[in-house]
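Quick entry between incubations.
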Amino acid sequence: MDYIRQNRANNALRTVKIIPNYLMSPEGSVLIEFGNTKVICTATVEETVPSFLKGKEQGWITAEYGMLPRSTGVRMKREAASGKQGGRTVEIQRLIGRSLRAACDLTKLGERQIIIDCDVIQADGGTRCASITGGFVALSLAINKLLHDNQLTENPLLMQIAAVSVGVVGGVPLLDLDYIEDSGCDSDINVIMGNNGKIVEIQGTAEGAAFNTQELTQLLGLAEIGITQLFDLQQQVLTSVQAA
Amino acid sequence: MDYIRQNRANNALRTVKIIPNYLMSPEGSVLIEFGNTKVICTATVEETVPSFLKGKEQGWITAEYGMLPRSTGVRMKREAASGKQGGRTVEIQRLIGRSLRAACDLTKLGERQIIIDCDVIQADGGTRCASITGGFVALSLAINKLLHDNQLTENPLLMQIAAVSVGVVGGVPLLDLDYIEDSGCDSDINVIMGNNGKIVEIQGTAEGAAFNTQELTQLLGLAEIGITQLFDLQQQVLTSVQAA
Amino acid sequence: MDYIRQNRANNALRTVKIIPNYLMSPEGSVLIEFGNTKVICTATVEETVPSFLKGKEQGWITAEYGMLPRSTGVRMKREAASGKQGGRTVEIQRLIGRSLRAACDLTKLGERQIIIDCDVIQADGGTRCASITGGFVALSLAINKLLHDNQLTENPLLMQIAAVSVGVVGGVPLLDLDYIEDSGCDSDINVIMGNNGKIVEIQGTAEGAAFNTQELTQLLGLAEIGITQLFDLQQQVLTSVQAA
Amino acid sequence: MDYIRQNRANNALRTVKIIPNYLMSPEGSVLIEFGNTKVICTATVEETVPSFLKGKEQGWITAEYGMLPRSTGVRMKREAASGKQGGRTVEIQRLIGRSLRAACDLTKLGERQIIIDCDVIQADGGTRCASITGGFVALSLAINKLLHDNQLTENPLLMQIAAVSVGVVGGVPLLDLDYIEDSGCDSDINVIMGNNGKIVEIQGTAEGAAFNTQELTQLLGLAEIGITQLFDLQQQVLTSVQAA
Amino acid sequence: MDYIRQNRANNALRTVKIIPNYLMSPEGSVLIEFGNTKVICTATVEETVPSFLKGKEQGWITAEYGMLPRSTGVRMKREAASGKQGGRTVEIQRLIGRSLRAACDLTKLGERQIIIDCDVIQADGGTRCASITGGFVALSLAINKLLHDNQLTENPLLMQIAAVSVGVVGGVPLLDLDYIEDSGCDSDINVIMGNNGKIVEIQGTAEGAAFNTQELTQLLGLAEIGITQLFDLQQQVLTSVQAA
Amino acid sequence: MDYIRQNRANNALRTVKIIPNYLMSPEGSVLIEFGNTKVICTATVEETVPSFLKGKEQGWITAEYGMLPRSTGVRMKREAASGKQGGRTVEIQRLIGRSLRAACDLTKLGERQIIIDCDVIQADGGTRCASITGGFVALSLAINKLLHDNQLTENPLLMQIAAVSVGVVGGVPLLDLDYIEDSGCDSDINVIMGNNGKIVEIQGTAEGAAFNTQELTQLLGLAEIGITQLFDLQQQVLTSVQAA
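Done. Structure below.
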């Protein structure tokens, strides 16, 4: 029998909230919630670039990701105590960094680096997508501050970036999987898109049951529905801050 | 000229808030705020003890401490990425662990371990004291759950524990220093007390100007004023949860 | 002006070679070449499973990936000397592991683990795809040995797995990018498929120029052409070994 | 029944010895003994400062602490082999560094760093206090050498620093606890004072039984008795070296 | 009963092969085989020297050594994953570096470093000797390239260097031990010589049965027989490349 | 002109002292001095064996080596703080372990491990030879204790082991090189012998000028002179302890 989702439609996002300027110190910060998933995203501007970019007249955007030990049902070992970041962490923070760099003309950023820190306070599926979606808002807030302070004269952002997961659970294609759906799913695809309608990154995994091109196309359609709503929310939040 | 504190009396705490059950997964959790300082404290119950206690018919309480990279004004390097916890982190988490073990008859805890994770979301001075004060509430919530679930028949907690910093700034003794006061202070003492009126831990540092026994006594008096109020708040929070 | 590929058609693989039983000790091993890219893949059978699978009556397949320091044009730091595996390495070895687990019914593997080591001797683009394609053959050889030795009575492999990269270079969709094409490409997608015609993993990146669903579909078509040829070659190699 | 100390009065130090210039290479060195506790303290002068002090026209004093694996009854793992310094080590070396910096006007030290290495050859309680007391002498010897060599024209030392532990064992307040007393003690306080009669650092721990302000005052009185004697001994040793 | 060697004389090398320019990127590279032992040796020229040689008007030669996890009968843990190089690895790579530096007048190398990477593809005894013998050829190829490109005007190489193991197995002195002979041997000596007839390094180990000076002399005679043949082979290979 | 040694003959050891039972806790301990070189050697008996020997009915002897940061003229970085043991340390501790294992019938040691810790207090050349020579005495003291306590009924030691360095300085063969001689030497050989007159380990290095078999034989003769004296001293010390 097919999976029947409770409380929301198969093509519906969970309740998404973005609280801008959540912390007092960072150049940009948000608390983003995808249902019970809660991530603090901050943007830090540093007036330096990594050594491999020294003298190349461009900036850089990078990301780091972490989870509080009890963001999850079973306590995860604190990576700082273990002495290294796990493979999943490394994989996710590289994805966040690449996705946000795709949003930006780095040559217009000047010789500075923006670090996006995404720290998961509570995890219920979709933490990397929430991190990218919230990370874009934190990045925008930091860039708006640079523009406001005349450290930048031109906005280097090319487009909005947002992300959502889609997957097939018990034969049913679903948008924005929570942890239980994600654990039991046949296939799981994270889609990162720009508001030019193009895909910036796609990561699909099917340890359970693989998918063919047609099913992939159907899931991408679902993703586009969700991401369009996330673009609207990002825009509202950024507008409300500008107005304030 | 002596330092003049704005907005509150020299013997006043900042606004302190404790939100219990802040996260959905841990056996106990709070968000504690000392003014702008915000720390998430969680208590995790594990049905095992560290190897040095195997077969000794007692439990253990330990603590881990971390700061989000942008909890501070200047971004701190993520310890998970650096590959180790810094000296200050190690020093603080050992203090939290010792302080909370002092609150507990470990032989009555059974062969289990409770891990207190204290993660600083925003730092404005006093993070270790907030961690201990909030950590005690998280610990109590977890123990109440064990009692409620009949995994414990007797409460192993001996007393309440809370902590506050005191110090001399510009010649003036102050209670509960914020970051700016702490940075400019002559001497800085963290006092951890039980509600039996006794001192459990004391850590005093005077890189600027040392203090004599009489001045120490005066600062301990200030600390006792603050800690008494923290005991009341802890009690209110725990009672409200029990009633719920 | 559009990119014009030299020496092979846009939808052609480079010369692919697979030398089975390349090393004398491993239960399975190959040297696989995609043009100038050369990877040694070995399969090691261990009669134990990772601790998270103890007692669960299933096996496990995992992978490790490395590059010789001078497999590349500029010498890479030896990861053993640096003290950790870089993010790219971690990302790739997790991909190889997931891809090969998708080929196998782990419950039929018994409580044993097969480790696939992929070591790049020479790198000219597509090392992860060569690793997966060659890793599958090494895995098959090891499983055939277990069957031959009566340690397995039923073949746990569900299907063949192979992988290839596709991408758009200078506006032109291409199959199996070499290093120079990869460096200059607008978008780059690694496609891992089973011989049931389904996609097992997909990883697409577009730091340069994003792609839409239609372009993605076109690239997946190219990938399918290449992977089909890789399935044939894998089959020939495995048959030749069986016959020997 | 109260604890009865053998061989010495409750307010007596163990036999303390300081052998100056114990090693041939360091700018300053001592072997210090508190009874069976033996620590080699060396002072190394480096004509550079840590990066956070570059260009600030001041010097720095820092400390490192270690124990030989068999300085203790049960062999401790060698920290160099474990790959990191334990929490206790970190805590102690930070304490030594802060204590000795309090003795010095760092702006008069010039842009140089003095590193105090404290290596415990044999441990019988009080190693951190012996390290601070001996470390001060090593530091003084190194500074005297800088003065003698005209690398400094003014002595940057503001006062003498020494340290001792006090504690309550079986209800009895004691000065300078040895290992057995320390293990069985109700509370244990390390007091670091300057010869201006002020407390520079205080670290009190009471996992067993906490203490109130009055008891603390009594223990501080005991500490002052011991530290006064340590100041005399430090002075004698330094004078004897100057005379030589 | 004395050990009887199969297939070759007691004073015979295994079949030795050296394939020059084995990889396309390094300045020098070979695949060297001592029987079933196969090592890839590469030489990388870097136009910089380690910091301890900055400004000293000389060059440096260093070596790194690694084994593929399944170069051996039982899989070895990947050192990059373990987070550090084992003691044996460190010992061997220091030996290779010292041996090759002895072949070179470093002051004639200019302020550049040549890194010799020796990666064992398959191990059957004698990997360090094969690494030194092959490493010398890779080094020579890289230096010949520097001479050819006019980056060097004078050849800094002083002599040829080669290495072989000798040992006593079951009472019988043998040249060039394979893994089984090495495992069962009474004593095992690695001899590294220059073609001036002198010993550059000698490492002898006798966990089983020690040797006296006379036996040592006898084994050195055996080593010289083998090394003389290795010098000839090195020379042939280098000449054939020059001719090409 | 040839090098002229001051104060002692070319075939003379420096003043060697061995103080037995130097520390109160270890099962065996000595302070050994070769002139200004001072090393504390301790032997720790653990009633367990490394995992690779579990159930093999034999014991194990291993060694660890360290240097105090200011044992040398220029301060060395503390390896515990650096996070790993350097290559030289690893090389030396492996040599010490192998040398001492050669002295012992491990099957007669029972399933226990003896750890020899060698910590250099002051370094003036020859620290590895002093460590082996002193380590043998510490090992003997520990084994004598096991025999005395009836934990062993038969002495597993097969012979005495001692070590000395020999080398050619300015053309002159010398016994027992100090640091200055070692730094300027043409070739340097560490010889480890048993009192059966056989060589247990030999490590010869000639970065400066290589040596031929005849020169090696001459240096071995020098080594034998020194080691014979070290055997006598070891014997005297052990006898004096037995008598006490």
